[in-house]
Amino acid sequence: MRNPSAPLLPEDVIRRCKKLSVALLLDGVKAAKLDIPNEGCMDAQIMPVARGMTVIGTALTVETQGGDNFPIHVASYSQPGQGYVMVIDGKNNQERAYFGDLIMGACQAAGFEGMVVDGYTRDRDGNIALNFPVYSRGFMPRGPIKNDSGNINTPITCAGVYVEPGDLVMGDSDGVCVIPRKYIEIVLLESEKKLVYESQRRKTVDDYRRAVAEHTPLPKLAPKWVLDMLEK
Question: Which residues pair with residue 176 across a beta bridge?
Fold first, then answer.
């Protein structure tokens, strides 16, 4: 089955996400007490090919299995790429790489923001040279097969997370999270609150470090919530 891509997320959503991190978005999910499987956090094995790679965009989903990358080819050539992250449910196949730097380069040329696959990739050095964000379970040199057209832009489960076309996808050096489109605003609000809190905490730690070095009175280092819990 091949469906049209979902509408891109508003540019304001992407702009706000660029000030956050995957960890902060997941803290936002937890603070909002949303009923999202695994809180939207993909399995810990889903990591970028190189540290420092980040990706933010609208989910374009692909479903395949058995190391078959024909659906990935179809999605890369037949769907608009600009603003989208290709999220591939590869069923955690460990026998073959789903793609290498040729497909990565094609997707990059088509405007995709990056790719996430529940499976393995290859051509690691070529991927790094492209500087194109790709997240996978690791690397496998054995090549893919090409048999079935799979499904494009249908709901999938990727690395433990339910993903619908049009959801928010974000990846950084910690891993990948997916936020359902209907929950994005509340998650962003809670994440932005946490960002303010963390900025204040970092200032407190810096002030404490400075006081130690200058032999001046020490400010309270422990956060208020720790002191409150101790009192209980």
Answer: 171
Give the whole-angstrom CA distance, residue 85 versus residue 195.
25
Strands (E), 100-187: 114-117, 120-121, 134-136, 151-152, 156-158, 161-163, 168-172, 175-179
Evaluate whether 61 touches 154 at the Cβ level (below 8 Å): yes
What residue has token string 């998650």? 187
Other beta carbons less than 10 A from residue 143's beta carbon = 14
Q: In whole angstroms, what is the distance from residue 134 CA to residue 227 CA?
A: 42
**Dihedral sign for Cα atoms in the order 44, 45, 51, 53:** negative
pLDDT of the chain, 232 residues: tens digit per residue: 999 999 999 999 999 999 999 999 999 999 999 999 999 999 999 999 999 999 999 999 999 999 999 999 999 988 888 999 999 999 999 999 999 999 999 999 999 999 999 999 999 999 999 999 999 999 999 999 999 889 999 999 999 999 999 999 999 999 999 999 999 999 999 999 999 999 998 998 888 899 889 889 888 887 887 777 878 7
Element spanning 199, H or E: helix 184-214
Give the separation between CA 45 and CA 119, rounded to whole angstroms: 10
Q: Specify the DSSP element, H or E, that contains 74.
A: helix 70-78
pTM of the model: 0.93
